[in-house]
Amino acid sequence: MAKLRMAAVAAPFGRDLEEDFARVSTIVADARAAGVRLLALPEACLGGYLESLTGPGEPPPALRPDGPEIARLAKIAGDMVVVAGYCEQGDDGRLYNSAACVTGDGVLAGYRKVHQPLGEGLSFGRGDRFAAFDSPVGRLGMQICYDKAFPEAARALALDGAEIVVSISAWPLSATDPHPDPAQDRWTRRFDLFDRARALENQIVWLAANQSGTFGRLRFVANAKVVDAGGEIVAATGQAAGTAVAEIDVAAALEEARRSMGHLSNRRPEAYGAAGPPMPVAAVA
Amino acid sequence: MGVTKIGAVAASFGRDLEFDLARIGTLIEHARRDRVGLLVLPDAALGGYLDDIADPDPNALPPALDPDGPELAEVAALAGEMVVCLGFCEADGDRRYNTAACVTGDGVLGLHRKVHQPPGESRVYAAGSGFSAFDSPVGRLGMLVDHDKTFPESARSLALDGAEVLACLSAWPTSVTNRAPRMADDRQAKLFDLYDRSRAAENQVVLVSSNLTGAAGRMRFLGQAKVVGPDGGILARTWSKAGIAIAEVDVAAAVGSARRVLAHLRERRPETYRG
Fold first, then answer.
1. Which UniProt keywords apply (chain B) (predicted)?
2. Candidates A159, A189, A261, A266, partner chain B, best to mutate (most B CBs within 10 A)
């Protein structure tokens, strides 16, 4: 495989879908001009996030994965692979905090957020799986925000063959005890720590998009980044809006990282007790 | 239980058990002077590490010790009221394990045989088969040896078994292929730090990371011992030189406070982790 130019975005988004689409269009056009073929937009970039994490609030506009808005996103993506977050209207009548991976051909995969912090479950239903999928730029996995605090989530995707995990967030600064310098805030540091650790321990490429600016009572940490398969940050936006761009030969990078010590193949699942994989349904029965 | 002083040791040890026991005695004495309640010594503190991690000489292994033998009994006597973790080469019949022991004056509280082995090590050591937490006078502990911390499942398994403090004992060398002029800039030093901080933060536990310093064969050890809080922040650390990183932590309060709003262990969704 040749080198792949990829990018992760930090930008603010709100309830006005037309404004959001205008911003997405500009970002995608700029990325295309820069030769980017895989682009990660933030969680909730179509319709904005929740105004607080402590209770039910006015939810973002609910969109169907097969509806006109996601089709519009696919049209904007064109020949690029684009991951974006939105509020999904499920067939079961529930709302989900979801990610869609699209190209001009349509939706390649969807993902519903599994790990919900604080009161997020009051607004959204919960996803029930992590699954990798094939795309024109390689095998990908998606996760959303708080998922990255759980090593199991990235591990499940890597074991399912994901070479690049796209982690999209609306990750806020600490609400109770914010540091005067956002770069030093403890939630910022944890955001960065988990991005690097997940790439390193799975020897995968990691794209982290995030909201920037403020929404309701939340202030976001931005710092979208690209992390290589050794856990090194190769591009980052810092605490401002922007696009972090990097070029990586993904197959070669994973091969090199895994050559002498392959973390996925050297796992010892039988030693992990309660932290091991769930028993297959058949084995339980 | 209140506040505990926790010490993470960076020091060098070799094949001479008399020398190693004397050095352990000195370190325990220094720690006692500082009122340390939990002291974590490096992997291979009794007998040193392998001479070559990729191609170890089976005839030049560290002395193989019985956990019930006189050497650990001597460390236990030195420890007295202090909880002390240390690594050694364990003999079990013909098998050899890279093992961590936790002792006090009352004897051995816990043992952990290294589970995850780099390729060369499996030629001379058998692998451990699991992870178990155990109770100690400073709270419920779990131990990891070296490469175990590369795998998030290791620390997770101990945290799910109730460990609030993880003792991670290492003999972790610098990058062989690409050694940096400053030890802290070495690629392996950065990975070592990243694992220490992430395992603490994702499990919301206190993590005590020890390591060898000095050299063995072609290997140079990193030091970089540290105590990490349950939010992933480094509370105390050494750099490349020998020393004891000491932090004062109310373990139960720190862990409780970290988990008050977001409790990662409780919020796991194992049914979704099938991959």
1. Hydrolase
2. A266
Mean pLDDT of the region B1-16: 96
Which amino acid is located at B109 in the chain?
Answer: L
Total number of domains constituting chain B: 1
Residue A258 has pLDDT above 60, yes or no: yes
Check pLDDT > 80 for residue B274: no
| Partner residue opposite B116 with nearest CB, options A230, A266, A273 | A266
Instruction: Print the SS3 string covering chain A.
Output: CCCEEEEEEEECCCCCHHHHHHHHHHHHHHHHHCCCCEEECCCCCECCCCCCCCCCCCCCCCECCCCHHHHHHHHHHCCCEEEEEEEEECCCCCEEEEEEEEECCEEEEEEECCCCCCCHHHHCECCCCCCCEEECCEEEEEEEHHHHHCHHHHHHHHHCCCCEEEEEECCECCCCCCCCCHHHCHHHHHHHHHHHHHHHHHCCEEEEEEECCEECCEEECCCCEEECCCCCEEEECCCCCEEEEEEECHHHHHHHHHHCCCCCCCCCHHHCHHHCCCCCHHHHC
Q: What's the domain count of chain A? A: 1
Q: Average pLDDT of A58-85? A: 97
Mutate to test the interface with B, among A142, A152, A159, A227 (most CBs of B within 10 A): A152
The ipTM (two decimal places) reads 0.96
Asked if the C-beta of B115 comes within 8 angstroms of chain A's C-beta atoms, the answer is yes
pTM of the model: 0.96
Q: Report yes or no: A138 and A167 within 8 Å, Cβ to Cβ.
A: no
CA distance to partner chain A, nearest, from residue B161 (Å):
8
A94 — pLDDT class (breaks 50, 70, 90): very high
The residue segments making up the domain with residue B63 are 3-272
Question: Residue A278: what pLDDT?
Answer: 60
With H, G, I as helix, E, B as strand and everything else as coil, classify residue B254.
helix
Which residues on chain B are in Cβ contact (under 8 Å) with A129?
A: 272, 274
A264 touches chain B (CB under 8 A): no
CB B47 within 8 A of CB B65: yes
Output the pLDDT for position B7: 98
Best B262, B273, B274 member to test A by mutation, with max A CBs in 10 Å, is B273
The distance of A88 to chain B (nearest Cα, Å) reads 19
pLDDT of residue A281: 44
Structure tokens at A115: 């790990």
Q: How many CB pairs below 8 Å do chains A and B form together?
A: 142
Q: Is the pLDDT of residue B136 over 50?
A: yes
**Which residue do the tokens 């030189």 mark?**
B241
- Distance from C-alpha of A47 to C-alpha of A18, rounded to nearest angstrom: 9
What is the predicted pLDDT for the residue at B181? 81
pLDDT given for residue A79 in this prediction: 98
Mean pLDDT of A53-59: 81
Q: What residue numbers bound the domain in which A202 lies?
A: 4-284
Identify the CATH number of the domain in which residue A239 sits: 3.60.110.10
CATH at B157: 3.60.110.10
